[in-house]
Amino acid sequence: QVQLVESGGGLVQAGDSLRLSCAASGRAFSSYFLGWFRQAPGKEREFVARVSWNGVNTMYTASLKGRFTISRDNAKNTVYLQMNSLKPEDTAVYYCAASQRTSPTIWPAEYDYWGQGTQVTVSS
To answer: How far apart, in whole angstroms, are the C-alpha atoms of residue 29 and residue 43?
Structure first.
């Protein structure tokens, strides 16, 4: 089966940094786009970033670019989200997702596989 497993979430203070990891199963993921979404209580699922597995093409939510960086390590079938200068409004469950589309965008329906999520809580 296909699995995506997130890790690295936790409780941090405003201004801290955190790096999330998402390990993907199967060699087929080397050709997939991988992305990150987040969902805060009572809010819609929100696109954060995504990257092609060759690393050439990246996309970020404009308000987060500069604080968050997406990267990948194909040898480990893993995608990362480096989060710096965290704010309380970043508090959410963070999900990784994989898409088989040629150029997925911000919409969850464009992604085929999802992880279970990892909680990030930022205190003030």
So the answer is: 29
